[in-house]
Structures are given as structure tokens and as C-alpha cells.
Amino acid sequence: MTTNFLFSYFLFLTMFLSLIIMVSMAFTPQNNFLINCGSNTNTIVSGREFVSDSNKPGSGFLSSDKSTTLTNPNPNPNSSDLYTTARVFTAVTSYSFQINKTGTHLVRLHFSPFNSQNINLGNSNFTVSVNGVSLLTNFRAGLPLVVKEFILMLDKVHFDITFDPLGNNGLAFINAIEVFSAPTDLIVDGGTKYVTFDGIQEFENISSHILEAIYRINVGGLKLTSFNDTLWRDWIPDEDYLSIKSAAKSVSTTELPNYQKGGASKEIAPDNVYMTAQEMNRGNLTINSVFNLTWGFPVDSQRGARYFVRLHFCDIVSLSLNQLYFNVYVNGLLVSKDLDLSLLTFHVLASPFYADFVVDSDSSGVLEISVGPSELSTSLRKNAILNGVEVMKIVNPASLKIWPNKKNIWVLISLIVGGLIVSCCVILVILILLKSKKKRAKKQAESSGWTPLRVYGGSSRSKSLETTHNVGRLKIPFVDLQSGTNNFDKNLIIGSGGFGIVYKAVLRDNLKVAVKRGVPGSRQGLPEFHTEITILSKIRHRHLVSLVGYCEERSEMILVYEYMEKGPLKNHLYGSNLPPLSWKQRLEICIGAARGLHYLHTGSAQGIIHRDVKSTNILLDDTNLAKVADFGLSRSGPCLSETHVSTGVKGSFGYLDPEYFRRQQLTDKSDVYSFGVVLFEVLCARPAVDPLLGREEVNLGEWAVQWQKKGLLKRIVDPRIADQIKPDSLKKYGDTAEKCLADYGVDRPTMGDVLWNLECALQLQETESVDATSIGPTVAPEIASGVGSINVDGSLSDIRTSQVFSQLVTNDGR
Known about the structure:
CATH class of the largest domain: Mainly Alpha
CATH topology of the largest domain: Transferase(Phosphotransferase), domain 1
Oligomer: single chain
CATH architecture of the largest domain: Orthogonal Bundle
Helix content: 10-25%
Number of domains: 4
């Protein structure tokens, strides 16, 4: 037998076995209307009963009797019984449904035109609408069969599907209708990315839009019919859409997907979609060859056309976790960089995951999806995969609305007139403001460099750096920095990063500083530059690196900080010849960093989320006092009425909160996750990610948590300090780090709780037993006053630790 025959047989056997399991676990919709249009009898199709729409007593679907039935005189013996009859309308007629429970629903309309009784249904031209919203306009059904599927939100218990024939002698027809409720997680708000050439942002309220299914692709696999899918969908192979077929290689597995709570489910896509994929076909190419796999889908090139794209992933090609890193592109734009499915699927291999995007159509009329290897991939593991694609057109208007009737037409007219009056007033105000702005612009001198930085504070009108009350005093002349760094001498370089190079300098008053210089003349890093100054000009804390000043002359971006003699914490853990820190020193450093982060989170009404917590951003002074640095990616926390900040994903690989990555919803618990990685970094003295290690050890957080859960954490402790750590101290420390790395933010402690537990770990290290008198000075007052007590394991009871430390920590920074 040939290889292709074996592959096809293998896939067929896989599908057959999985279908046996799937049928017993099929989704049961709460609302389920299946209509066999134009027939006097019910019909069973794939185990589902389609009922007759005849106007018999009690049927109650049709709104009028202005329709007739047709029977196909020459039915296709291979087609479904649904297409042997049709309901034909000569006037506007609706099918009416009473919905038991509102929510997201699927609507499928089946059209199979045929000739009967001198009527050619192929010539019919009509409009189909739901609750007054047009789904199909000037629609002509093509041969032999057209199935139109829509996903929409029904927020009313009454639901109409209306057919409106066009023309004097026009006809409309339908062969079958499906209306059934969808699973609650099929289309959810939050996490959908809107992709444009100007950037990527969150697309809000996707569930309120009507989506028309255009493509549903089983990448790397065979065709799947409705019998293969718990939502009765068809999936077609991807070969016709691959730009370069020879670049792709089909792969499959016989193992069922490892579905995880919070990831994809069987209703998102059937098992077989996740059990097949296309990967890069390396063939005879050189080991360092880099290319992308690309699929092109013809779409509407009309201006304003917008599409919802869902990509399905399941790592069935890796032998272990953290082997596969790749990039994802939509219409040539990078939408996901260094995608690590191990991180997104709760550290479980072959676990399904999907990502949603919204993209506008362009004049090319082709929607492109590409995947390609990441720079993080090693030369032996450069690969990229894709398991499935769904493309849906967003139907306008966005949400279902009822057309006004005669009773409320005057209300509508009043709203329109009122809206016009308001619009005129707004336009008048804008014209006045623009005129006033032009007059002011003539009086203001323009900067020869960048646009003056805007910061918060001062008057209600934004001011430049030079005029803001607490920032203007921070400006340092470029000549002073040039002199202090000996014209930016390379011998004075003490570090470098994404923003630029860091120099050691001495200013005129003999003040030692660190000078971070952005790339001269470049605008890259401008938002980070602005953010850093804005935040550090507003806060001051003993465990946060202080901003001495800044410079924005001559198209320069320069930040000047207090000088931290001993540099990044990372250099004292691994990768240098510096003497190792003791366990007590490491605990004190972690406590200091936790105090700084806790102040960030609680020191203002909204708080500040750092967003890039890692060992290189924790600096040490000459006494090993820890200070958190680098606030270029920081963001203000959510308002009191909010639970998160919706924002694009920023951070460092290995430290990034997986929940933040999945949902793009930032909270202070994202910092807690990153700090948990730092805690294990401090304990084990190794990088957060080390691709040179064994497969299970690449990601420090995952690897350390596995040992922690086994109760064997001591086996991976830095051998230089292993004998120094007391068991109780290690247990408290390990428990704290593990809780920080919980998959969901709600399960992680606050930074105040982390701080409390680290204090306890330090006290457990310094004494055999813990009581009120042995707790350090920052804790004893609360215990002595009867507010709380210390448990046997060193944890605090009867008190919220975040409340304790919000009082203890914030004051010492002022």
C-alpha cells in the first residue's frame, strides 16, 4: 500500500473511533428548532429530527398562508431528504419562534434550488432578515446547494426569520431551517484582538455582532461533516488555500486532545480538528532555513468589510513541553510573537487552544493567515503549526434590533431631530476650540526635538515636562551628561537593554548616577521614556529606584537614576564570578523587592502595575538593599469599578503571566506571577528560561512547581546555599512561590500577602519556633495588639495580610 493510502486509512480509523465517543457526549441545546420546510412529514437527518412546517393546527411557525410547497421531481439520490421539498413565498412571510432562554444562537438556512411546476427556484431573488436585521440582501441561491450559517445574540424571547421576495412577481424559498442555542463559551467577550496597520487593540463586545460563517477549515485533515461535529458543522480540508503546498507537511495523532478548563472545548472545534495539523515541511532544506506557512482565503474586497478570524492550535508535534515557539501573522501583520502553547494550555501537552482576531478586508480581496518559526526556537526545533481556521464575516448592523412600528415612529423621529440638534451644537463647539487653538499655537515656540512630553498633574490642561510642577526640576542639560560620562565613553558602560545603553556617570556635585541613553534620533521607546518619567516623578519609596532627572535635547532620550553599586540581582545569582549571596541575604532582597512592588500596587487610588518584574529589574546598592527598577512598561491599575486593565501584552519571556497573555487583561496579579518566577530564580540560581537544559527543565517556573508539589524542592536548590536553609523556612518560601504561579490570578496572593509570607520565612530561618515575641519589628505591633496571631507554619490568621502591610510598608517609603 502507498504512503498516501496508509495515511488516509489511518485518519479514517481515527475519526471513526473518536466519533463513537463523541456521539455519546453530544451537545444538547436548550433551544432547538429544526424545520423541514415545505414537507408534510418529519425527517431524520444524522440523528436529528426536522419537523414539518405545514400549517397544521399547533404547528405555529408561519406568520401567513401566502406560501406554497414544491416537491423536487428529480431529487439527487445522494442528497439529504431535506432538499426534496421547499417552502415558496410570494409575499413577505416570517417563521416565528418562541425562545426559552436568550443568549448566543446558531441559525442555518438551507437552500437547494430546483425546477418544479414551471417554477425555477434558481431564478428567485429575495432578502432574508431576522428581527428586522438583514442577513441576506438580493440573494440568489446557487446550485446545487447553499447553506448559510449565522451566529447571533438573541436577547428577546420572540424571534422571526422573514423572507421578502423582490420584484413584481418575485419568489423566495427555503428548504430547511436550524435555530438552536450555542454553548456559552462559543463566542465570548474579552481577548479578541482587532488587527490594523496602526497596531493591535482589544475588540469589544464581539458577542453582540452577527457573524456569518464563510470558511471552516480542518487544517492538515480530511473533510468533517455535521455528523463529526457536536454543533453539526462542516469542516473542509485546507489544501486549496495553501499558498505553497510543498512547504507544509500534514501531521496527525491517535490520542484524543487534552482539554483543559479555560481552554478550547469539544464545542469550540471537534476532536479531529485538534488531532490533525500542518507543520513546516523541512524536507531536504538546510537546518537553518526559515520560512512561513501561508493560507489565503478569498473575501469581499469592498471597503468596510470586516471579518472575525478564529485560529485553532494544539501541539501534537512536540515530544515534551516548551519545544515549540512560533509567530502568527494575519494579513502580514504580526499578531502573536513567540507563541508558546505550553504556556497557554496550563502546561499540558496536546491541549487545544484558540485565538480570536478581527481584521478589515483590503483591496486584495484575500485574507492571509501565516505561521512561522520564532527567534526563540533552536535550529533543531524550528517549526510552526496550525490545526484549524474559521473565518466569519461581521454582518452590519452589529446587533439585533426590532424595526419601529407605527406606535413608536414618532419617538424615532424625535430622537433623530434631537440627535441633529446635538450634533450641530457639538460641531459649533469644535470649530470654536479649533480657532482658539490656532491662536495659541502662534504664541508657542515649537521644540526642535520631540513633541514635549505630557504628564499628569498640574492644571486640567496637559503641560510639557518643562512646565509641570514636579517634573520640570528634573531636567538635566545634555552637556552635563556628556561631561559626566566622558562623552559616553564605552569603558563606562554598565549595562544595556531594549531601551538603550546604561553608563556610569558622576555629575557636577559628585553625585554618582546611572545614565540610560536611548538610541539617538530614534523615536523607538518614546512611550516607555514618557511612562518612566511620569511614574517616577509621582512616587518615592525606599525600595524603588529613584529618578534623578531626564534629558530630551537634541533628539535625545536620556533617563538618569540613582546609582546602584552592585547592579542587577541576576548578576549575583548566576552568570558572573561574584561571590554567592547567603540565604538570609536572598530573603532580605526578596522582601525589599516585595515591599517596593506592594507600594506600587497600593500607594495610590488606582495603583501601578509594573508589568516587567524580573531579576534584571531588581537592583542592589552597596549594602544589598533591593530596589525595583525600569518602569517603562508600567500601567495604572484598574479603577474601583473595574477588575482589570485591557491592554496589549508586554513583558519578558519566562516571566509573563499566562492569564494576561490569553485574555490581554492586566491586573496586579500579573506582577505577582512574575515575582513568583523571581523567587524560584533566587532559590535555584538559574535563568527563567534556559533552552540548553533538558526538555522538562527549560521553563523554571513549571519545573520548580513540579518539584514543589512533590515535596522535593530542596533537590533543586542552589547547592551553594542548600545547607544554610532551614526546612521550615524553605517550606514557607516554596509554598509562597507556588501560589504566585497559580494559573488564574484569582488564586494568587496579593503582593502584601507575599511580603508577609517572606517575612515569616525569614523569621523561621532565624529561629526554631515562632511566636509574637520572635516576630520582627514590622510585625510584632499587630500581633501584640491582638489583631492577629501566627499559626504553627508561620502564616497569619484572623487578619488580612494585605491590610497589615498596606500600613506597614507604604509609610517607610515616604
